[in-house]
Amino acid sequence: xAITDPYHAVRALNSYAKWxxxxxxxxxxxxxxxxxxxxxxxGRHLEPIAxxxxxxxxxxxxxxxxxxxxxxxxxxxxxxxxxxERAQTAACLQGxxxxxxxxxxxxxxxxxxxxxxxxxxxGAQRRHVYRALIPYGDNADQLxxxxxxxxxxxxxxPVLIFVPGGAWVFGSRLVQGHELMARFAEMGWVCVSVxxxxxxxxxxxxxxxxxxxxxxxxxxxxxxxxxxxxxxxVAGCSAGGHLATLAGLTPNDPEWQKDLPPGADxxxxxxxxxxxxxDWQDRSTLERxxxxxxxxxxxxxxxxxxxxxxxxxxxxxxxxxxxxPPFLVVHGSRDAVIPVAEAREFVDRxxxxxxETVCYAELPGAGHGFDLVDAVRTGPVVHAIGLFLDHxxxxxxxxxxxxx
Length: 404
Prior knowledge:
The chain is α/β, with parallel strands linked by helices.
């Protein structure tokens, strides 16, 4: 119904008046920067401006935490400490996988440090993109890339869906996850890199409904690209880790797939979360309170006090059940953006109820986004993910009674 209808016009004015009453300077900045994204045709190309504004407004609130986390770590006396922490990466990952992956595979050679930060190789790694800009929905932003080898064997290959991070205000399939997907393409997997709609233009739960739509697309279509539709794993970093985890814990949840065809399958067979968010409810610390306020004003655009269920349902830690698929969770011990305690709490909750494998690797000294900037840790982490998912795939597909 058009907004000229008196009832809807009054509701719209009332909603706007409430927003003005509670808006702060940052809210006006975000609103002004979001306006161009609503323009026809070119609007979707301007949408990142709104995301940058949102991050810019809120980054200042996290600056004290970032400065505190780095205090005392960058003096001359601490170089040896940082090198020692990085040197523990492979051993930490081996310990996390010890009960899952055979010892001979764990004890084989692990990747050596790269010369450059991983994100500098992203452009070259896109040579593994087999098909780009594939639509998985009706919206222009619902796009994905398929990564695979040109010489993929005729036997269907296992599938990995990668969900990028970006604080729910960026969802680009470019740059993030390239090291991981390039490695998996070389291993003979088919990878799907997902781009999804983001806030502040598209408020929650559009992000998770898009991820669900991409999973459903893969279940129905990835066979055309050589993928095994019976085995689909999902991985993500930061906000992408949250979305991947939430997708893994809520298979075929009708609330988040109302726009999908009846019978669409949004289940996954394994989850990998790198420095993800797991709790959208807790405000018990200053950091958590700041985060929930960010959700209220930018992502969900609703008050937690008035809509507590929306925040609960978006919290992976509150959605844990015994039906969870196998999980690998990786987090840095010095993550100043998402404190490691949140990952520990989630893993403990999951291990308490899930009969499936739950592996947890806490990387000494690692911070947020290490897979983009850390040339020492990223290779071993990608290798560990390969071991975990490859073993999980073969365990799922092995004939009954056959040892894996």
